[in-house]
Amino acid sequence: MRECSFLQIGGLTGFLFLLLIASYIIHHDIQRIRQYKSKTVTLIKQLHESDIQNRELILSRKKAIHGYAKLIQGHGKDSAIRYAESILQAS
Which residues constitute the domain of residue 57? Predict the structure, then answer.
């Protein structure tokens, strides 16, 4: 009788220990996934902000080039050369 009870308690203790280990592993994986998701969201936001800034920079350069091109029209050769140099620097 005692041997049977001892085996049952030992088996139950071993089973609970295995459940505890499995629970720890699952919890650790869930935490790692949450951290990965948080970092991914942060990186996506940074990429989006960088994309907006790059688009604004490209647009401002296009406006500058367009403005210099308008200035070249109707000016003398010396002015055209200066404006052409400015266009090269802006591009």
Answer: 2-90
**What's the token pair of residue 89?**
């620097």
Q: Are 67 and 83 in contact (CB under 8 A)?
A: no
91: pLDDT strictly greater than 70: no
Q: How far is CA 49 from CA 29, 34, 43, 54, 69, in A?
A: 30, 23, 10, 9, 30
Q: How far apart are CA 1 and CA 14, in angstroms?
A: 20
Total domain count, the chain: 1
pLDDT tens for each residue of 26-69: 999 999 999 999 999 999 999 999 999 999 999 998 887 777 77
